Amino acid sequence: MLILPRTTVEAGGVVHDRQTEYGRQRRGYWNNVASDSRTWAIKRYYHQRLGHIYSFLIPPGMRVLELGCGQGNLLSALRPAYGVGVDWSAVMIDKAQQLHPQLSFLEGDVHALDLGETFDFIVCSDLVNDLYDVQQVFEAARRHSHSGTKIILNTYSRLWEIPRRFAEKLRISRPHLEQNWLTSEDVSNLLYLADFETFRTWHEILWPIRTPGLNSLANKYLVRFAPFRWFALANFLIARPRPVEQPDPEPIVSVIVAARNEEGNIPEIFARVPEMGGGTELIFVEGNSQDDTYGAIEREMTRHARLRVKLFKQPGQGKGDAVRTGFANAAGELLMILDADLTVPPEDLPRFYESWRSGKAEFVNGVRLVYPMEERAMRFFNLIGNRFFSLAFTWLLSQSVKDTLCGTKALSKRHYETIAANRSYFGEMDPFGDFDLIFGAAKYNLKIVDLPIRYRERVRGESNIQRWSHGWLLLRMVVLAMRRIKFV
Q1: pTM of the full predicted structure?
Q2: Domains of the chain by range and CATH?
Protein backbone atom coordinates (compact mmCIF):
# COMPACT_ATOMS: atom_id res chain seq x y z
CA MET A 1 0.00 0.00 0.00
CA LEU A 2 1.36 3.42 -0.99
CA ILE A 3 1.36 5.96 1.86
CA LEU A 4 0.88 9.48 0.57
CA PRO A 5 2.90 12.33 2.12
CA ARG A 6 1.26 14.22 4.99
CA THR A 7 -0.15 17.66 4.10
CA THR A 8 -1.41 20.61 6.10
CA VAL A 9 -3.55 23.63 5.09
CA GLU A 10 -1.84 26.91 5.96
CA ALA A 11 -3.08 30.54 5.92
CA GLY A 12 -4.77 31.59 2.66
CA GLY A 13 -5.77 28.01 1.84
CA VAL A 14 -2.43 27.13 0.30
CA VAL A 15 -1.71 23.42 0.61
CA HIS A 16 1.89 22.90 1.66
CA ASP A 17 3.41 19.44 1.49
CA ARG A 18 5.78 19.40 4.42
CA GLN A 19 7.47 16.15 3.45
CA THR A 20 8.13 17.42 -0.08
CA GLU A 21 9.55 20.66 1.28
CA TYR A 22 11.70 18.71 3.73
CA GLY A 23 13.07 16.64 0.85
CA ARG A 24 13.75 19.76 -1.24
CA GLN A 25 15.82 21.28 1.57
CA ARG A 26 17.78 18.08 2.08
CA ARG A 27 18.49 17.68 -1.63
CA GLY A 28 19.80 21.23 -1.76
CA TYR A 29 21.98 20.67 1.28
CA TRP A 30 23.51 17.42 -0.02
CA ASN A 31 24.01 18.85 -3.50
CA ASN A 32 26.07 21.61 -1.87
CA VAL A 33 27.98 19.03 0.18
CA ALA A 34 28.78 17.05 -2.98
CA SER A 35 30.06 20.23 -4.67
CA ASP A 36 32.20 21.21 -1.65
CA SER A 37 35.84 20.23 -2.17
CA ARG A 38 36.85 20.78 1.46
CA THR A 39 37.88 17.83 3.64
CA TRP A 40 36.89 17.55 7.29
CA ALA A 41 39.14 15.95 9.90
CA ILE A 42 36.34 14.10 11.70
CA LYS A 43 34.46 12.90 8.63
CA ARG A 44 37.47 11.48 6.80
CA TYR A 45 38.56 9.06 9.53
CA TYR A 46 34.98 8.40 10.66
CA HIS A 47 33.93 7.18 7.21
CA GLN A 48 37.04 5.04 6.85
CA ARG A 49 36.19 3.36 10.14
CA LEU A 50 32.58 2.79 9.04
CA GLY A 51 33.82 1.20 5.82
CA HIS A 52 36.01 -1.19 7.81
CA ILE A 53 33.09 -2.20 10.07
CA TYR A 54 30.61 -2.76 7.24
CA SER A 55 33.18 -4.73 5.22
CA PHE A 56 33.60 -7.01 8.23
CA LEU A 57 29.84 -7.49 8.58
CA ILE A 58 28.97 -8.15 4.91
CA PRO A 59 30.83 -10.84 2.95
CA PRO A 60 31.85 -10.00 -0.62
CA GLY A 61 29.75 -11.21 -3.52
CA MET A 62 26.33 -10.32 -2.05
CA ARG A 63 23.39 -8.37 -3.48
CA VAL A 64 23.54 -5.07 -1.59
CA LEU A 65 21.22 -2.05 -1.57
CA GLU A 66 22.42 1.13 0.13
CA LEU A 67 19.85 3.78 0.99
CA GLY A 68 21.40 7.23 1.20
CA CYS A 69 24.54 6.12 -0.62
CA GLY A 70 26.23 9.52 -1.10
CA GLN A 71 29.18 9.13 -3.48
CA GLY A 72 29.06 5.32 -3.23
CA ASN A 73 32.36 4.77 -1.42
CA LEU A 74 30.88 2.56 1.30
CA LEU A 75 28.91 0.45 -1.19
CA SER A 76 32.01 -0.04 -3.32
CA ALA A 77 34.06 -1.12 -0.27
CA LEU A 78 31.62 -4.00 0.28
CA ARG A 79 32.55 -5.59 -3.09
CA PRO A 80 29.00 -6.70 -3.93
CA ALA A 81 28.21 -8.99 -6.83
CA TYR A 82 25.32 -6.61 -7.50
CA GLY A 83 25.21 -3.24 -5.79
CA VAL A 84 22.56 -0.53 -6.01
CA GLY A 85 22.84 2.87 -4.33
CA VAL A 86 20.00 5.36 -3.96
CA ASP A 87 20.32 9.00 -2.93
CA TRP A 88 18.15 12.07 -3.37
CA SER A 89 21.11 14.27 -4.37
CA ALA A 90 21.61 14.31 -8.15
CA VAL A 91 25.15 15.67 -7.72
CA MET A 92 26.03 12.82 -5.34
CA ILE A 93 24.67 10.25 -7.77
CA ASP A 94 26.64 11.71 -10.71
CA LYS A 95 29.85 11.55 -8.69
CA ALA A 96 29.09 8.03 -7.47
CA GLN A 97 28.57 6.77 -11.02
CA GLN A 98 31.84 8.33 -12.15
CA LEU A 99 33.80 6.91 -9.19
CA HIS A 100 32.25 3.43 -9.23
CA PRO A 101 31.00 2.54 -12.73
CA GLN A 102 30.69 -1.17 -11.80
CA LEU A 103 27.75 -0.31 -9.50
CA SER A 104 24.25 1.02 -10.19
CA PHE A 105 23.14 4.36 -8.75
CA LEU A 106 19.69 5.92 -8.78
CA GLU A 107 18.50 9.39 -7.86
CA GLY A 108 15.32 9.20 -5.80
CA ASP A 109 13.52 9.63 -2.50
CA VAL A 110 14.01 6.50 -0.39
CA HIS A 111 10.67 7.13 1.38
CA ALA A 112 8.78 5.83 -1.66
CA LEU A 113 11.34 3.48 -3.17
CA ASP A 114 10.12 0.41 -5.07
CA LEU A 115 12.68 -1.23 -7.37
CA GLY A 116 10.76 -4.49 -7.77
CA GLU A 117 13.68 -6.66 -6.58
CA THR A 118 15.16 -7.98 -3.35
CA PHE A 119 18.64 -7.88 -1.83
CA ASP A 120 20.73 -9.91 0.62
CA PHE A 121 21.78 -6.83 2.60
CA ILE A 122 20.30 -3.36 2.95
CA VAL A 123 22.61 -0.68 4.35
CA CYS A 124 21.44 2.54 6.02
CA SER A 125 24.55 4.33 7.23
CA ASP A 126 23.85 7.60 9.08
CA LEU A 127 20.54 7.77 7.24
CA VAL A 128 17.82 7.69 9.90
CA ASN A 129 19.08 10.93 11.46
CA ASP A 130 18.30 12.69 8.18
CA LEU A 131 14.85 11.28 7.31
CA TYR A 132 11.39 12.82 7.50
CA ASP A 133 9.62 9.51 8.24
CA VAL A 134 11.91 6.70 9.40
CA GLN A 135 9.14 4.08 9.57
CA GLN A 136 8.15 4.79 5.98
CA VAL A 137 11.73 4.17 4.80
CA PHE A 138 11.92 0.92 6.77
CA GLU A 139 8.68 -0.16 5.09
CA ALA A 140 10.33 0.57 1.73
CA ALA A 141 13.30 -1.54 2.83
CA ARG A 142 10.93 -4.36 3.73
CA ARG A 143 9.62 -4.37 0.14
CA HIS A 144 13.16 -5.10 -0.99
CA SER A 145 13.76 -7.94 1.46
CA HIS A 146 13.52 -11.70 1.12
CA SER A 147 13.32 -14.02 4.14
CA GLY A 148 17.11 -14.02 4.62
CA THR A 149 17.76 -10.31 4.09
CA LYS A 150 19.66 -8.39 6.79
CA ILE A 151 19.25 -4.65 7.26
CA ILE A 152 22.33 -3.11 8.88
CA LEU A 153 22.31 0.47 10.02
CA ASN A 154 24.23 2.90 12.16
CA THR A 155 22.95 6.10 13.68
CA TYR A 156 24.49 8.84 15.79
CA SER A 157 24.22 8.43 19.54
CA ARG A 158 22.21 11.18 21.20
CA LEU A 159 25.07 11.72 23.66
CA TRP A 160 27.06 13.22 20.79
CA GLU A 161 24.51 15.88 19.84
CA ILE A 162 26.22 18.66 21.84
CA PRO A 163 29.83 17.59 21.05
CA ARG A 164 29.00 17.51 17.36
CA ARG A 165 27.52 21.01 17.43
CA PHE A 166 30.66 22.16 19.22
CA ALA A 167 32.80 20.52 16.49
CA GLU A 168 30.76 22.36 13.85
CA LYS A 169 31.45 25.70 15.57
CA LEU A 170 35.17 24.87 15.59
CA ARG A 171 34.94 24.10 11.86
CA ILE A 172 36.36 20.58 12.23
CA SER A 173 33.03 19.06 11.22
CA ARG A 174 30.61 20.02 8.45
CA PRO A 175 27.47 21.88 9.66
CA HIS A 176 24.30 19.78 9.40
CA LEU A 177 20.62 20.53 9.08
CA GLU A 178 18.39 19.64 12.01
CA GLN A 179 18.72 15.91 12.83
CA ASN A 180 16.61 13.14 14.32
CA TRP A 181 18.34 11.96 17.49
CA LEU A 182 17.00 8.44 17.95
CA THR A 183 18.03 5.91 20.57
CA SER A 184 18.66 2.27 19.65
CA GLU A 185 15.32 1.46 21.30
CA ASP A 186 13.57 4.04 19.09
CA VAL A 187 15.10 2.54 15.95
CA SER A 188 14.30 -1.04 17.02
CA ASN A 189 10.68 -0.07 17.62
CA LEU A 190 10.38 1.56 14.19
CA LEU A 191 11.93 -1.54 12.60
CA TYR A 192 9.37 -3.68 14.45
CA LEU A 193 6.52 -1.52 13.12
CA ALA A 194 7.90 -2.09 9.60
CA ASP A 195 7.88 -5.89 10.15
CA PHE A 196 11.57 -6.36 11.03
CA GLU A 197 13.05 -7.83 14.20
CA THR A 198 16.29 -6.51 15.64
CA PHE A 199 18.58 -9.28 16.88
CA ARG A 200 21.86 -7.49 17.49
CA THR A 201 22.80 -4.02 18.77
CA TRP A 202 26.18 -2.65 19.81
CA HIS A 203 28.31 0.51 19.88
CA GLU A 204 31.20 1.68 17.70
CA ILE A 205 33.65 4.61 17.38
CA LEU A 206 34.62 6.17 20.67
CA TRP A 207 37.17 8.58 19.15
CA PRO A 208 36.24 9.90 15.64
CA ILE A 209 39.49 11.77 14.87
CA ARG A 210 42.60 10.07 13.54
CA THR A 211 45.10 10.26 16.37
CA PRO A 212 48.00 7.80 16.09
CA GLY A 213 47.65 5.15 18.80
CA LEU A 214 44.60 6.66 20.47
CA ASN A 215 41.98 6.00 17.78
CA SER A 216 43.01 2.32 17.53
CA LEU A 217 42.99 1.85 21.32
CA ALA A 218 39.64 3.61 21.70
CA ASN A 219 37.80 2.19 18.68
CA LYS A 220 39.02 -1.41 18.69
CA TYR A 221 39.27 -2.10 22.41
CA LEU A 222 37.90 0.44 24.90
CA VAL A 223 34.58 0.79 23.08
CA ARG A 224 33.87 -2.92 23.78
CA PHE A 225 33.75 -2.39 27.55
CA ALA A 226 31.63 -0.46 30.03
CA PRO A 227 31.65 2.40 30.83
CA PHE A 228 33.48 3.44 27.63
CA ARG A 229 30.92 1.94 25.23
CA TRP A 230 28.20 4.19 26.68
CA PHE A 231 29.98 7.19 25.11
CA ALA A 232 30.39 5.77 21.60
CA LEU A 233 29.40 7.92 18.65
CA ALA A 234 27.61 5.28 16.57
CA ASN A 235 24.84 2.85 17.51
CA PHE A 236 24.77 -0.20 15.22
CA LEU A 237 21.75 -2.47 14.70
CA ILE A 238 21.16 -5.58 12.62
CA ALA A 239 17.61 -6.70 11.87
CA ARG A 240 15.88 -9.22 9.65
CA PRO A 241 12.31 -9.63 8.38
CA ARG A 242 10.07 -11.08 11.08
CA PRO A 243 10.03 -14.84 10.57
CA VAL A 244 7.38 -16.64 8.59
CA GLU A 245 7.16 -20.35 7.89
CA GLN A 246 8.73 -21.33 4.59
CA PRO A 247 6.31 -22.26 1.78
CA ASP A 248 6.06 -25.78 0.37
CA PRO A 249 7.72 -27.93 -0.80
CA GLU A 250 9.41 -29.01 2.40
CA PRO A 251 13.18 -29.47 2.08
CA ILE A 252 15.26 -32.61 2.26
CA VAL A 253 17.21 -32.79 5.54
CA SER A 254 20.79 -34.11 5.48
CA VAL A 255 21.88 -35.49 8.86
CA ILE A 256 25.67 -35.83 9.11
CA VAL A 257 27.04 -38.41 11.55
CA ALA A 258 30.79 -38.35 12.24
CA ALA A 259 31.44 -41.88 13.49
CA ARG A 260 34.73 -43.02 15.00
CA ASN A 261 34.85 -46.12 17.22
CA GLU A 262 31.03 -46.19 17.43
CA GLU A 263 30.33 -49.70 16.10
CA GLY A 264 27.83 -50.49 18.86
CA ASN A 265 25.70 -47.37 18.23
CA ILE A 266 25.25 -47.73 14.47
CA PRO A 267 22.11 -49.96 14.51
CA GLU A 268 20.33 -47.53 16.86
CA ILE A 269 21.18 -44.56 14.65
CA PHE A 270 19.56 -46.25 11.67
CA ALA A 271 16.52 -47.21 13.75
CA ARG A 272 16.00 -43.89 15.55
CA VAL A 273 16.80 -41.03 13.14
CA PRO A 274 13.34 -39.82 12.01
CA GLU A 275 12.07 -38.77 8.61
CA MET A 276 11.80 -34.98 8.46
CA GLY A 277 10.54 -32.47 5.92
CA GLY A 278 10.75 -33.73 2.37
CA GLY A 279 12.81 -36.70 3.54
CA THR A 280 15.92 -37.46 5.58
CA GLU A 281 19.30 -38.17 4.04
CA LEU A 282 21.67 -39.92 6.44
CA ILE A 283 25.36 -39.28 5.77
CA PHE A 284 28.01 -41.24 7.69
CA VAL A 285 31.64 -40.14 7.68
CA GLU A 286 33.71 -42.89 9.28
CA GLY A 287 36.87 -41.65 10.99
CA ASN A 288 39.39 -44.49 10.61
CA SER A 289 38.08 -46.38 13.63
CA GLN A 290 39.91 -49.03 15.60
CA ASP A 291 36.74 -51.11 15.73
CA ASP A 292 34.46 -52.20 12.87
CA THR A 293 32.39 -49.01 12.63
CA TYR A 294 32.71 -48.92 8.83
CA GLY A 295 31.56 -52.52 8.48
CA ALA A 296 28.64 -51.92 10.86
CA ILE A 297 27.44 -49.02 8.69
CA GLU A 298 27.71 -51.13 5.54
CA ARG A 299 25.67 -53.93 7.14
CA GLU A 300 22.94 -51.54 8.27
CA MET A 301 22.81 -49.93 4.83
CA THR A 302 22.04 -53.38 3.41
CA ARG A 303 19.32 -53.97 6.02
CA HIS A 304 17.75 -50.53 5.43
CA ALA A 305 18.01 -50.36 1.65
CA ARG A 306 15.01 -48.02 1.38
CA LEU A 307 16.67 -45.27 3.39
CA ARG A 308 18.72 -42.53 1.77
CA VAL A 309 22.19 -43.24 3.15
CA LYS A 310 25.70 -42.26 2.07
CA LEU A 311 28.97 -43.52 3.55
CA PHE A 312 32.39 -41.89 3.28
CA LYS A 313 35.83 -42.56 4.67
CA GLN A 314 37.14 -39.45 6.42
CA PRO A 315 40.07 -38.00 4.46
CA GLY A 316 41.63 -36.12 7.40
CA GLN A 317 41.46 -36.05 11.18
CA GLY A 318 39.09 -34.59 13.76
CA LYS A 319 35.33 -34.25 13.89
CA GLY A 320 35.47 -30.89 12.10
CA ASP A 321 37.06 -32.51 9.03
CA ALA A 322 34.41 -35.26 9.10
CA VAL A 323 31.54 -32.78 9.31
CA ARG A 324 32.93 -30.72 6.44
CA THR A 325 33.21 -33.90 4.35
CA GLY A 326 29.58 -34.73 5.08
CA PHE A 327 28.35 -31.22 4.33
CA ALA A 328 30.25 -31.17 1.02
CA ASN A 329 28.43 -34.33 -0.09
CA ALA A 330 24.97 -33.44 1.23
CA ALA A 331 22.01 -33.08 -1.14
CA GLY A 332 19.64 -31.55 1.42
CA GLU A 333 18.71 -27.91 1.78
CA LEU A 334 18.92 -28.19 5.58
CA LEU A 335 22.10 -29.57 7.17
CA MET A 336 22.15 -31.15 10.65
CA ILE A 337 24.84 -32.76 12.79
CA LEU A 338 24.14 -35.73 15.05
CA ASP A 339 26.80 -37.11 17.39
CA ALA A 340 27.22 -40.86 16.94
CA ASP A 341 27.43 -41.40 20.71
CA LEU A 342 23.65 -40.76 20.93
CA THR A 343 24.04 -38.50 23.98
CA VAL A 344 21.63 -36.22 22.11
CA PRO A 345 18.55 -38.33 21.26
CA PRO A 346 17.84 -38.52 17.50
CA GLU A 347 14.16 -38.12 18.42
CA ASP A 348 14.96 -34.44 19.21
CA LEU A 349 16.03 -33.65 15.64
CA PRO A 350 12.50 -32.65 14.46
CA ARG A 351 12.60 -29.80 16.98
CA PHE A 352 15.71 -28.47 15.24
CA TYR A 353 13.91 -28.80 11.93
CA GLU A 354 10.83 -26.92 13.14
CA SER A 355 12.92 -24.11 14.67
CA TRP A 356 14.59 -23.56 11.31
CA ARG A 357 11.52 -24.22 9.16
CA SER A 358 9.41 -21.72 11.12
CA GLY A 359 11.97 -19.00 10.40
CA LYS A 360 12.63 -18.44 14.10
CA ALA A 361 16.27 -19.47 13.69
CA GLU A 362 18.82 -19.42 10.89
CA PHE A 363 21.37 -21.32 12.98
CA VAL A 364 19.96 -23.74 15.58
CA ASN A 365 22.44 -24.49 18.35
CA GLY A 366 21.80 -27.43 20.68
CA VAL A 367 22.22 -26.66 24.40
CA ARG A 368 22.97 -29.29 27.04
CA LEU A 369 23.23 -26.90 30.00
CA VAL A 370 19.57 -26.01 30.64
CA TYR A 371 17.84 -29.24 31.65
CA PRO A 372 19.32 -31.56 34.31
CA MET A 373 21.69 -34.13 32.80
CA GLU A 374 21.85 -37.81 33.53
CA GLU A 375 24.26 -38.45 36.35
CA ARG A 376 27.33 -39.45 34.32
CA ALA A 377 26.54 -37.60 31.10
CA MET A 378 29.30 -34.98 31.61
CA ARG A 379 32.27 -34.94 33.95
CA PHE A 380 32.48 -32.09 36.48
CA PHE A 381 35.44 -30.23 34.94
CA ASN A 382 33.91 -30.60 31.47
CA LEU A 383 30.73 -28.99 32.82
CA ILE A 384 32.67 -26.08 34.37
CA GLY A 385 34.61 -25.59 31.14
CA ASN A 386 31.44 -25.60 29.03
CA ARG A 387 29.80 -22.98 31.24
CA PHE A 388 32.88 -20.76 31.06
CA PHE A 389 33.07 -20.98 27.28
CA SER A 390 29.34 -20.29 26.92
CA LEU A 391 29.75 -16.99 28.81
CA ALA A 392 32.91 -16.11 26.90
CA PHE A 393 31.37 -16.71 23.48
CA THR A 394 28.11 -14.93 24.29
CA TRP A 395 30.20 -11.83 25.07
CA LEU A 396 32.44 -12.32 22.05
CA LEU A 397 29.65 -12.85 19.52
CA SER A 398 27.04 -10.44 20.94
CA GLN A 399 24.44 -13.21 20.63
CA SER A 400 23.44 -15.81 23.19
CA VAL A 401 25.45 -19.01 22.75
CA LYS A 402 24.75 -21.01 25.89
CA ASP A 403 26.62 -24.15 24.83
CA THR A 404 29.54 -24.11 22.41
CA LEU A 405 30.33 -27.83 22.20
CA CYS A 406 26.98 -29.53 21.84
CA GLY A 407 27.44 -31.45 18.61
CA THR A 408 23.87 -31.07 17.37
CA LYS A 409 23.36 -28.04 15.13
CA ALA A 410 21.30 -27.10 12.08
CA LEU A 411 21.66 -24.52 9.31
CA SER A 412 20.79 -24.17 5.65
CA LYS A 413 23.18 -25.37 2.98
CA ARG A 414 23.15 -21.89 1.47
CA HIS A 415 24.37 -20.32 4.70
CA TYR A 416 26.94 -23.05 5.21
CA GLU A 417 28.37 -22.40 1.76
CA THR A 418 28.84 -18.71 2.66
CA ILE A 419 30.67 -19.73 5.85
CA ALA A 420 32.82 -22.26 3.98
CA ALA A 421 33.72 -19.81 1.21
CA ASN A 422 35.10 -17.38 3.80
CA ARG A 423 36.65 -19.93 6.18
CA SER A 424 40.17 -18.62 5.60
CA TYR A 425 39.29 -15.58 7.75
CA PHE A 426 39.46 -17.77 10.87
CA GLY A 427 41.87 -20.45 9.66
CA GLU A 428 41.78 -24.22 10.13
CA MET A 429 42.57 -24.62 13.84
CA ASP A 430 39.19 -26.06 14.96
CA PRO A 431 39.24 -29.88 15.16
CA PHE A 432 35.68 -30.04 16.52
CA GLY A 433 33.85 -28.16 13.75
CA ASP A 434 31.56 -26.43 16.26
CA PHE A 435 33.49 -23.16 16.40
CA ASP A 436 34.02 -23.01 12.66
CA LEU A 437 30.22 -22.92 12.32
CA ILE A 438 29.49 -20.68 15.33
CA PHE A 439 32.14 -18.12 14.36
CA GLY A 440 30.90 -18.07 10.78
CA ALA A 441 27.24 -17.81 11.79
CA ALA A 442 28.02 -14.85 14.05
CA LYS A 443 30.28 -13.05 11.57
CA TYR A 444 27.77 -13.33 8.74
CA ASN A 445 24.87 -12.21 10.92
CA LEU A 446 22.75 -15.35 11.12
CA LYS A 447 20.06 -15.40 13.75
CA ILE A 448 21.44 -17.90 16.30
CA VAL A 449 18.87 -19.61 18.54
CA ASP A 450 19.74 -21.92 21.43
CA LEU A 451 17.58 -25.05 21.59
CA PRO A 452 17.74 -26.89 24.95
CA ILE A 453 17.93 -30.69 24.86
CA ARG A 454 18.23 -33.34 27.57
CA TYR A 455 21.74 -34.69 27.51
CA ARG A 456 22.08 -38.44 27.98
CA GLU A 457 24.81 -40.61 29.40
CA ARG A 458 26.91 -42.40 26.80
CA VAL A 459 25.88 -46.08 26.82
CA ARG A 460 28.59 -47.56 24.57
CA GLY A 461 32.19 -46.65 23.83
CA GLU A 462 34.32 -43.82 25.20
CA SER A 463 34.42 -40.10 24.53
CA ASN A 464 36.88 -38.85 21.91
CA ILE A 465 37.26 -35.53 23.79
CA GLN A 466 40.63 -35.01 25.52
CA ARG A 467 39.73 -32.79 28.43
CA TRP A 468 42.94 -30.83 29.06
CA SER A 469 44.57 -30.65 25.63
CA HIS A 470 41.27 -29.78 23.97
CA GLY A 471 40.51 -27.28 26.75
CA TRP A 472 43.78 -25.48 25.97
CA LEU A 473 42.84 -25.46 22.31
CA LEU A 474 39.48 -23.91 23.18
CA LEU A 475 41.24 -21.10 25.04
CA ARG A 476 43.32 -20.44 21.94
CA MET A 477 40.10 -20.20 19.91
CA VAL A 478 38.69 -17.69 22.41
CA VAL A 479 41.77 -15.53 21.80
CA LEU A 480 41.32 -15.98 18.04
CA ALA A 481 37.68 -14.90 18.29
CA MET A 482 38.69 -11.82 20.26
CA ARG A 483 41.12 -10.81 17.52
CA ARG A 484 38.94 -11.71 14.54
CA ILE A 485 35.42 -10.89 15.74
CA LYS A 486 35.41 -8.63 18.81
CA PHE A 487 38.42 -6.33 18.42
CA VAL A 488 38.27 -5.42 14.73
Answers
A1: 0.86
A2: 15-241 (3.40.50.150), 253-486 (3.90.550.10)
